[in-house]
Amino acid sequence: MNKRHRIIILSAPSGSGKTTIAHTILNDEKFNCSFSVSATNRTPRANEENGVHYYFYSENEFSELIKKNAFVEWEEVYNNQFYGTLKSEVERLLTHGKNILFDVDVKGGLRLKEYFQDNAIALFIMPPSLSELKKRLENRNTETQAGLEQRILRAEQEITYAQKFDEIIINDNLEIAIEKIKTLILNFLNAN
Asked: Would you state the pLDDT for residue 1?
């Protein structure tokens, strides 16, 4: 991998705005990014397409991929709910000659940073508070009450990893957070 292929890792607790920020970066041509589609064994939501939002697998299929060492990184994010980055996806994207943008869970982001090392920038998007994060998750209307509580507990754990990232950006104002992230990415892409 040479300087043309740089890695941008966005990680955050669910509901912190990372996917919105990722779409903004992807839609800005100056970043020359392709999106790494993650794999999961969770059920697709109503608006999600296989191969676009995620690669959807059954639990057995995901387990087989783990056994075959098919992932750069993978994690059981919630009970029996796995997410990961397929090696084949990274290889596919590298052939495009673009930078690769990852929108991944916190532990996955740290594993990707370890894998790509200085060729990657790992950004942690911090919610302004857990109460604000809960409000954002409630407004999405995608979770049961039990699922919502599980995501808040997970967020509390994930926040403890923030200091391990290259930069922490607090998303208390989306436009300001996006501008900070764009500046950090541009500085990284233009560095030797």
From this structure: 43
The percent of residues in the chain predicted with pLDDT above 70, rounded, is 96
**Nearest-angstrom CA–CA distance, 85 and 109:** 10
- What is the domain-level CATH number for residue 183? 3.40.50.300
Range of the domain at 107: 7-187
Q: What is the mean pLDDT of residues 60-89?
A: 94
Collapsed DSSP state (helix, strand, coil) of residue 21: helix
CB neighbourhood size of 85 (10 A): 24
Q: How many domains does the chain have?
A: 1
Q: What is the pLDDT of residues 101-129, one digit of tens each?
A: 999 989 999 999 999 999 999 999 998 88
192 is a domain residue: no
Residue 1 lies in a domain: no
Q: Which two tokens stand for residue 33?
A: 């990014």
